[in-house]
Amino acid sequence: MLSPWIVVGTSFAYLLLLFAVAYFGDWRAAQGRSVIANPWTYALSLAVYCTAWTYFGSVGRAASGGVWFLPIYLGPTLAMVLGWVVLRKMIRIAKTYRITSIADFIGSRYGKSPLLAGLVALIAVVGIVPYIALQLKAVSAGFALLTLAPAAAPAPQAHWSQDSTFYMALALAGFTMVFGARHLDSAERHEGLVAAIAFESVVKLIAFLAVGLFVVYGLFDGLTDLFARAHAVPELAALSRLEQSGGFAWTQWFALTLLSMLSVIFLPRQFQVMVVENVSEDHLRRAVWVFPLYLLAINLFVLPIAVGGLLFFGSAPVNADNFVLSLPLAAGQNALALFAFVGGLSAATGMVIVETIAVSTMVCNELVMPLLLRTHHFQNESRIDLTRVLLLIRRVAILVVLVLGYAYFHLAGEAYALVSIGLISFAAVAQFAPAVLGGLYWKGGTRRGALAGLLVGFLLWAYTLMLPSLAKSGWLDAAFLTQGLWGWHWLRPEHLLGMQGLDNLTHSLFWSLMANCGVFVGLSLWRAPSGQEASQALLFVDVFERTSSSSPVFWRGSAQLPDLLRLCERFMGSDKAQALFLTYARQSGVRDVQAIQPDARLVQFVETQLAGAVGSASARVLVASTVEEETLTPDDVLRILDETSQLRAHSLELEEKSASLEKATAELRAANEQLKSLDRLKDDFMSSVTHELRTPLTSIRALAELLRDDPKIELAQRCKFIDIIVSETERLSRLVNQVLDMAKIESGHAEWLTEPVNMGALVRQAIATTAEMFRERQIAVEVTLPDQVPLLKADPDRLMQVMLNLLSNAAKFVPVSGGRVGVSMTSDDAGVTVSVQDNGPGVTRAQQALVFERFRQGGDASNRPQGTGLGLPISRRIVAHFGGRLWLESEPPDGARFSFFLPIRPAADSVNN
Amino acid sequence: MFKELLSQRLSALFVGGWLLLNFPLLALWDVDATWGGVPVFPAALFILWVVLIAAIAWLIERPVTRTKDE
User: Fold this and answer.
1) Using H for helix, E for strand and C for coil, what is the string for A423-462?
2) Which residue of A has its CA nearest to B69?
3) Residues 44-103 of A with CB under 8 A from B
C-alpha cells in the first residue's frame, strides 16, 4: 500500500514531464529541427493503439481465456502488411486535399457531403466517448488498488469534486488544448503532441516489460518453472491451449482478427497519428514492421503474468485485470508497482489525448461548423475574424469530450457497458471500412450508398451490441434481449432472425458489416454518381496517377479575387491568408497578389486551404457561397478529365520537342566551334606554308638577280650562288612535297602499301642511308638491335620516311663536336619499339607538345636549324596509321629520345582509317 | 492497386499471414507439449508472428525495392 499523496504526486509529475516533452517537440519544430520527422518516432506514435485496456485488460483476458488476447494484436499486424499499399494512399489523399479527420475523409470522398461527414463524426462520438471513460476508469482503479489496503472493501465512489480522476481529466483537457488547439494549423499537425505520444509509448512498454521480467524471474524461476507449475493445475494448463472448453470458436477468432485489423486503421486516434500527423510517406516503410514488433514486445509477458498471477494468488479473489499492479504490490515491490501504474497512466493518457483531439476536430468541423454556417449572421457578417471562434469551438469541444468521458465513467462505474466497451468501440469504427476502402478503390461508390450503408451498419451495431450492453448493465429493461423487441422473437438483438452459434460480438459484426456493405454497394449501383461525386471519386482513386500540377480542376464559374482573399482572411487570419496568396502568386508566376487570375485553380486552392481549417464539407459550402459557380454534370466531369489528360499529353509532347531542340542546338554549337577552330588552323597553316616558301624563294630570287645584274661575277662565286639556288630549290620542292604529303594523309587520300616488314633490316638500311651525313658531321652512331625481330604488316617506304626523319632530326640537334646518336630497338609479343636518342640540348617540357605540331620546330628562332617543320607531324601520322604511337622523352639538357611503337596486330580500324 | 511488384508481394504475404494465423492451420500447433519449457501453442503463435514481421521488414526495407518505386 502506498500513500495517496505519493501516487497523486507521481502522476502529476508524470503529466508535467509530458508537458515538457511536448513543449520540447513544439520548440524544436519551431526551430525547424523536428523531432517527429523520423520513422522511429512515427512508429512509436502508432503504438497509441495500446491503451490501458491493453495494459491491464490483456492480462485479465489471458487469465480467463489464454491466448484469446492475441487476435487484437495479430489483426493490426496483418493490417500493417497491407499498410504500404492502403495507408500510403490514404496519406497521399489526406495530404493532397488537406483532410484532417476520418469524418472529413469520408465526407470529402463522397462529394464533400456535410451530412455524411456529420454522421461519421456522430458515430465516432457515440463509439469513442465510452472508450475514453474506460481509460479513466482504468487509472482510477489502479489508483485505488495502490492506495487501499488489500483487504479493505472498495471505497464508495467519491463525489466528482473530490475525485482525483476528475482533476486528471481536467489536466488532460488542459494538455490537449495547449498542444492540440493552441493555434490554428491548417494541416492539423501537432508536433509536440506526437513527441509526447511517442514518449508515452516508450514508457508503457518499459514499465510492462519490467513487470513481466519481475514476475517471470523474480517471483518464479524463469519461464520453464512458471509453465511447469501451471501445467500441474488443469485449469491453468488449459490456458496455453487453443480449445478452452468444447470446440475452438474459430469464427470468433476470425472476427476478432478482422475487427482489430479494421480498427487499427479507422479508429479516430489511429487515423490522427497515422495519416494526419504523418510527416513523410517514407516513414511508413519503417512503421509497418516496427509497430507490429512493438505490439509483439508488449504482449510477450501477458500470458506469463496472467499465469503467474493465478499461481501466486491461488484461490484469493484478486481481479486479474490488476495483476500488473497487484503482483509487485503483493511482493512488496512498491517502487515497481508505482512504475507499473505510471506505465498504465501513460497508456491511458496517450489514448485520451489523441482520441480527444481527433474527436474534437470532427465535432468542430463536421457538426458545429455546418450549423454555424447556416445562421445568417455568420454568413453575412463578413468582417468577423473567425479564427478565434474556431479555436474556441475546438477548445470547448475538447473539454466537452473529456467531461462527457468522465461523466460516463462516473455514472457507469463497474457496469458491464463500460467493461466491454473496448470491443464495442472497435465494432463501431469498423463501420467506416466499407465507405473508406470502397471509396479508395472503387469509383462507383456514391454518397447515397455510403450514407445509407453507414446508417444501417451503425443502427445494427447499436441494436445488436450497444443496447444489449446497456441492458446488461441494468439501465434498460433486459426483457427485449430474451423476448425480442415488441415481443417479436426474431428480433432478439443477439440472435437476429434466430441466428445461433455466434458469440454476440461476431454476431453483431456479421450483421452490421454485411448490411453496411450490401446497402453501400446496392445503393451505389442504383444511381450513377453526380458530377461532384464523380469528380471526387476520380481525385481519390487515381491520386497516385496525377501530380498536383496535372490534376484536373473540377470547377466552373466565375470568382472575384477580393472575395476569395477575404474568405481566407476570415478563417485563417489576415497575415496567414496574405502569405498563402503570395505563395500562390509566386507559384503561378505573377508578381503580386493583385495580379492573380481568379480562375478555377485559385478557387480550388482556396477551398483546399479552407478545408484544412474547417473541413472539406464546410469549405465547399463557404466557397460556394462566395463565388458564382455552375453545377457540374458527370459529363462535364468526364470532359474536364479529358481536357486535362489532353493538356497533359500536349505538354509532354512539347517538353519532348523542346528537349530534342535543345540537344540539336547544342550539337550545332559544337559543330560550329569545331568548324571555326578548323578554319583558324587552316589560316595558320596557310600563313606558315607561305612563310616557309618565301624564305627559299627570297634567297633564290636575290641570287638570281645578282647573277643577272652583274655579269662580271667570278666563276667560283657564280658556281657557289648556283649551288645555293639549287639547294634552295630542292628545299622548296621538298617542302611542297611534304605539304602535299601531309594534305594527302590528312584528307585520307594517301596510298598505303601493306606488306611484311622486317624492322631490323629497315633500321639498318636507314642508318646506312644517313651514314654519310653522320660521318660528315662527325657524329658517332651506336646501334643496338635484337637478333630476331617479328615481321610487321606495314608500308616499308613510309616507315623508312619516319626513320630518316628521326635520324636527320637527331643529326640536326647534336653538338657540333662530340655528337652522339643512339638507335635501339626492342620487341615483345605486342609489337616493336624503336628509339632514337641524341645528346643535344633536349626539349623543354613546354616545347614537348609543340614539336609534333606543324611548322613548330624545336629550339629558339635564332639557332633553329634547317627544316620544314613538317617531318615530325607526318611521322606521327604515319605511325598512328599503323596503329602505333610516336612520342618524345626529354629531360633538358640531357638530350632527347624519340621513340615509336608499332603493334604486330594493329587494331582493325586503325589501318583502314 | 496491383501495379508495383512490391504491392503484389505484400498482398501475397497478407494472404499467407491470414491463413497461417487462422483456423485450421493454427489448430495444427495445438498440442500438449512444450518447447524448452514453454507450451507449444503460445510459442508457435509468437514465432509465426515474428516471422511475419521479419517478412514485412525484409520486403519493404530492401534497397532494391527502395530504389525501384521511388
Assistant:
1) HHHHHHHCCHHHHHHHHHHCCCCCHHHHHHHHHHHHHHHH
2) A282
3) 66-67, 70, 74, 77-78, 80-82, 84-85
Shortest CA distance from B46: residue in chain A: A296
State whether residue A250 sits within 8 Å of chain B by CB.
yes
B25 touches chain A (CB under 8 A): no
Q: CA of A586, closest CA in chain B: separation in Å?
A: 28
For residue A148, give the DSSP letter: S
Strand partners, B35: B38
B18 and chain A in contact, CB less than 8 A: yes
Q: How confident is the model at residue A418 (pLDDT cuts 50, 70, 90)?
A: low
Q: Nearest CA of chain A to the CA of B66: how many Å? A: 9
**CA separation for the pair A350, A194 (Å, rounded):** 10
- The rounded mean pLDDT for chain A is 83
Domain residue ranges of chain B, discontinuous segments joined by +: 9-61
The more confident residue out of A874 and A867 is A874
Q: What tens digit of pLDDT does each residue of A822-854 get?
A: 898 888 888 889 999 888 888 888 777 777 776
**Any chain A CB within 8 A of the CB of B63?**
no
Q: Which of A583-597, A623-637, A665-679, A840-854 has the highest mean pLDDT?
A: A665-679
* CB-CB contact of A762 with A800 (8 Å): yes
Alpha carbon distance A510, A801 (integer Å):
100
**Cell numbers that stand for A794 in this block:** 606495314
Q: Distance from B69 to chain A by nearest Cα, in Å?
A: 11
Rounded distance between C-alpha atoms, residue A286 and residue B61, angstroms:
7
Determine phi and psi for A151, rounding to 5 degrees.
Answer: -85, -15
- Show residues of chain A in contact with B10, CB under 8 Å: 81-82, 84-85
Tell me how close the Cα of A440 comes to any Cα of chain B, in angstroms: 10
Cα–Cα distance list, A738 to A676, A683, A772, A773, A881 (Å): 25, 18, 23, 21, 17
Distance, in Å, from the CA atom of A39 to the CA atom of A557, rounded to the nearest integer, reads 43
Q: Which of A78, A85, A286 sits opposite B17 (nearest CB)?
A: A78
How does strand A779-784 pair with strand A819-827?
Answer: parallel
How much is the ipTM here? 0.91
Which grid cell is A769?
642511308
CA-CA distances (angstroms) from residue A586 to A187, A538, A593, A901? Answer: 21, 28, 9, 65
Q: What is the DSSP string of A73-99?
A: HHHHHHHHHTHHHHHHHHHHHHHHHT-
Task: Tell me how many helices (H) and strands (E) chain A has.
Answer: 40, 9
Q: Which of A74, A220, A244 to mutate to test the interface with B (most CBs of B within 10 A)?
A: A74
Reading the block at residue A730, the C-alpha cell is 630542292
Q: Which of A591, A604, A427 shows the shortest CA–CA distance to A516?
A: A427
Residue closest to A127 by CA, chosen among A269, A287, A9: A269
Nearest Cα of chain B lies from the Cα of A248 at a distance, in angstroms, of 9
Out of A242-256, A576-590, A870-884, B8-22, the most confident range is: B8-22
pTM value? 0.71
Interchain contact B6–A (C-beta under 8 A): yes
| Cell triple for A161 | 469534486
The DSSP 8-state label assigned to residue A218 in this structure reads I
Which residues of chain B have a CB within 8 Å of the CB of A256? none
